[in-house]
Structures are given as structure tokens and as C-alpha cells.
Amino acid sequence: ALPTRATLDFQLAHAEARDAVEERLDADRLFDELTARGLTAVRVKSAARDRRSFLMRPDLGRKLDDDSRQHLKAFAGDYDLSFVIAEGLSARAIARHALPVLERALQSLCQTSWKIAPIVLAEQGRVALGDDIGEMLGARLVAVFIGERPGLSSPDSMGVYLTFAPRLGRTDAERNCLSNIRPQGLPYADAARKLAYLCNEARRRQLTGVDLKDEADMLPSGELRAIDAKS
Question: Could you tell me if 94 and 83 are in contact, meaning their C-beta atoms sit under 8 angstroms apart?
């Protein structure tokens, strides 16, 4: 039998993971934080009408509801990159980590000529919802910030999924993923640096997925900025 301390630790970790899945994102607060930073933000919802349907019907979290589809049409344009923020399976992860990584990534990308779409804050969204959003906005790349499935030691891990030429029907093999973004995992600065590298390489090579490798750590110090300038 496990010692009492270990049993209690396990029960606490399990409860935190369960709570993380069931928590709702404070979308009003996050929207206000985005606009307070001078960022244009748009709110949308998936076809999952509530948390229960989101968890029981994953397909509904992969497409926009009708009202959001109409609303998003007003923001369509010709963009290099669209950022989508969705709580996924851990609203806690998005509340804690999305803005720090987004700010750092934007700082890096703004050093070069990137046309960024309005930031989309999506409620009850899954990764593939970014394909629908990116296609509607007219973005060549979409980066989805999403709360990952909570583990016993990590109820607040965030992932970023990058997809070139987003459209309905894209598969996970056509995406690049940065996982376990949090101070105890992949730190914010490293996540933003890797994301900027992948964005620049995706634009240069016109692809994402299994043929695009994250080689940001192999570059000498300072070389990432030089690559950005050539993109």
C-alpha cells in the first residue's frame, strides 16, 4: 500500500486535473487584457453550446457556430498569420500562459514584415477550430494556443499548434506542435523563440507538419534574428 502522504498527493493531483478540465475560461477578462495591450481581438464560439457538449462531442469544438461565422466575416482580409486562443481542456493553462507567450512571439515577429490578423478568442474550441478560423480570415498560417489535457503533475500545460494554409480537413500530421508550455516545462521565452522560428520557416518553405522540424535550438546565438530578417 502507498504511504498516506503519497495517497493524499495523488488524490490532490487527480482533483486538480479534473477541475482543470471542467473549469470555464474567464473570456471577458482575457479579452480585456488583450485590448488593454493595444491588440485587436475578436470573440467567437464553437458549435459546442456548453462544457458538457464540448467534452462529449469533440466534433462540435472543431467548427464555429453560425453567429460566430457571420461575425468573423467582417474581419476577413489578407493575413500572414492568425493567432487563435482557445481553452481546450485546460482553461487554467490559457489564463496563466497565453498572454506571456503571445506578447513575446509578437515582439519577435514584429521585427519583420508579418501581417497579423486580429487575435481570435474562441470559447469551447479544439485545435482544428483554428483551421475554420484561419480559412475564414484569409490567413496563410494559423497558430492555436490551447489548454492541453491535464496530467497528474501538470494541470496547466499549454500547447501551440501551427498550421500552414489552414482549411477544414487538415490533419495533425500537417501541424507543428509546441507542448507543455509553462514555467515548470517549456519556458515562455523558449516557446516564443521556437514559435517565431517555425513561423518564419513555414512561410519560407510553404508548409508545416512532419516535413518541418524545429531546429531553433541548433542555431548559434543571434542567428534567429538574421533568419527573420530574410523571411
Answer: no
Cell of 106: 509578437
Taking the C-alpha atoms of residue 89 and residue 29, their distance in angstroms, rounded to an integer, is 19
What dotted CATH number matches 4-230? 3.40.50.11240
DSSP conformation letters of the chain: ---HHHHHHHHHHHHHHHHHHHPPP-HHHHHHHHHHTT--EEEEEBS--SHHHHHH-GGGGGSB-HHHHHHHHTT---EEEEEEEE-TT-HHHHHHHHHHHHHHHHHHHTTS---BPPEEEEET--TTHHHHHHHHHTEEEEEEEEEPPP-SS-TT-EEEEEEES--TT--GGGEEEEEEESTTSB-HHHHHHHHHHHHHHHHHHT--STT----GGGSPTTHHHHHHHH-
Residues of the chain with pLDDT under 50: 224-231
Helix 188-205 to helix 91-109 angle (10° resolution) is 60
Grid cell, residue 221, equals 546565438
Gyration radius (Cα) of the chain, Å: 18
Q: Read off the pTM.
A: 0.86
| Overall residue count recorded for the chain in this entry | 231
Q: Convert the pLDDT of each residue in 83-107 to its tens digit.
A: 999 999 999 999 999 999 999 999 9
